[in-house]
Amino acid sequence: MAGNNVSHANNRTRRCFLPNLHSHRFWVESENRFVKLKVSAAGMRLIDKNGIDAVLADLRKRGEKV
Questions:
Q1: 38 to 5, 9, 10, 20: CA distances (angstroms)
Q2: β-pair partners for 13
Q3: DSSP 55
Q4: What is the C-alpha to C-alpha distance for residues 12 and 41, in angstroms, rounded to an integer?
């Protein structure tokens, strides 16, 4: 997504809105190991809601490396 930085003098310059990404280790009890994922803050909330096992199963079904 793109937009403008607007200064006090109302000068406008283009900018990008980037996702809030974090590199985070998640403990997977079923595999007895840590999995390191680069996820957004919304992704972390999704993992808290659905569980890491469900999210990993969905990632593997889409063919993404985990």
A1: 27, 38, 36, 10
A2: 5
A3: H
A4: 29
- The encoded tokens of residue 21 equal 């990404």
Distance CA 39, CA 57 (A): 16
- 7 contacts: CB under 8 Å, gap ≥ 6: none
Task: Give me the amino acid identity at 55.
Answer: V
> Which two tokens mark 20?
């809030």
Q: What is the mean pLDDT of each run of 10 residues along the chain (66 residues)?
A: 97 97 96 95 96 94 88
- Residue 29 CA to residue 5 CA, distance in Å, equals 45
DSSP state of 38: E
Q: How far apart, in whole angstroms, are the C-alpha atoms of residue 34 and residue 25?
A: 6
The model scores a pTM over 0.90: no
